[in-house]
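sorry for the late reply, my laptop died twice this morning and i had to redo everyting from scratch. anyway the thing you sent over, i finally got around to it. pasting the sequence first so we're on the same page, its 215 residues, then the predicted structure underneath. double check i copied it right bc i was rushing
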Amino acid sequence: MAASTFIIADDHPLFRGALRQAVTGIDGTQTIIEAGDFEAARQAAAEHSDADLMLLDLAMPGVSGFSGLMSLRAEFASLPLVIVSATDDAVTIRRALELGASGFISKSAGIDEIRSSIQSVLEGDIATPASYQGGQETDPDVADLINRLRTLTPQQSRVLGMLGEGLLNKQIAYELGVSEATIKAHVSAILLKLKVDSRTQAVIQLGKINMAMVA
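ok and here's the structure:
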């Protein structure tokens, strides 16, 4: 098997070690890049455009809920993203897949199961826990919201996530290295795409997607 490049994005060093152990058990030679926060994960994806797969924790410093997945999916369309999360209920799994994840691995899974899931995604399949039964989004409003969230650009997804964390426009501008006017333009575009009138309403909409992850 040819050499493969994997990005492991998780803020817990011990779990990154477990994921590294799972990856190194796959046939062939691996290059493994680790990231402990969302910005490091995004930077790793930008610097390794040929990466075969990213293992992404949903709960990472620098991003809120599914915002990181949406942003990375929009910015790195060809990079398979496999969500790794301790929150592994059916709703969270389904929404992760609907927002572009190539698979979902529970943090309670053993090394062999993690490795098998990674191999499935590398072979072009969608990997989910054995207990996951699939199905469609049962809330039509959430289904519509997911479709609207898919229309956000990578930067708009980042901005929405930061709004969800309670940051002000000038704080977001500083974090992203752009002008406050640019952030205001992004916020206006987000409100238009989400069909809401205020940033507060936009955050409430984002919260509807992340509700399953609160537990």
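The longest strand covers residues 4-9.
thats about all i looked at so far, will dig more tmrw
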